[in-house]
Amino acid sequence: MRLEDLMERAAKYDENLARDIKDYVHGRRYGLVYEASKPEFVRMWKKPVVRGDIVNILPPRGVMEDTKNDDDPSEIVYKVISISNGVATLRNEKTDETVTASVDDIVALARFDKPIYAGLKETGRVERGGDKPYHVVINGENYHALQTLVYAYQGQVDCIYIDPPYNTGATDWKYNNNYVGKDDKYRHSKWLTFMEDRLRLAKKLLNPKDSVLIVTIDEKEYLRLGLLLEQLFPEADIQMVSSAINGKGVSRDSEFFRVNEYIFFVKIGDCLFSELSLPDEWLGNIKTSTTKQVRWGSLMRSGTGADRKDSPGCFYPIFISKDKKEFRGAGEVIPIGVDRSTARIPDDVIAIFPIHDDGTEGRWQYSRDKFLELQAKGYARISTYTKKDATIRYISEGWQKRVERGEIEVIGKGPDGSLIFNDEEYDQKYIPGNQWWINTHDATEFGSKLVQKIIGKRFSFPKSLYAVHDTLRFFVNNKPNALVVDFFGGSGTTLHAVNLLNAEDCGQRKCILVTNNEISEDEEISLTAQGLRPTDEKWDDLGIARYVTWPRTVCSIEGQDIKGKPLKGDYGRPIETYQEYEGEIIDPVTGKKKRKKLFEKVKRPFYPELADHKMSDGFRENAIFFDLEYLEPSVVNADLAFDRIAPILWLAGGCKGEILQRQKGYVIGETYAVLFDPRYKTRFVDAVLENKEIKTSFIVTDAAERYRSLCAELPGCRVMQLYESYLRSFEINAIG
Ligand SMILES: C[S@@+](CC[C@H](N)C(=O)[O-])C[C@H]1O[C@@H](n2cnc3c(N)ncnc32)[C@H](O)[C@@H]1O
Question: Of 178, 264, 228, which is closest to residue 36 (Cα–Cα)?
Answer without folding.
Answer: 228
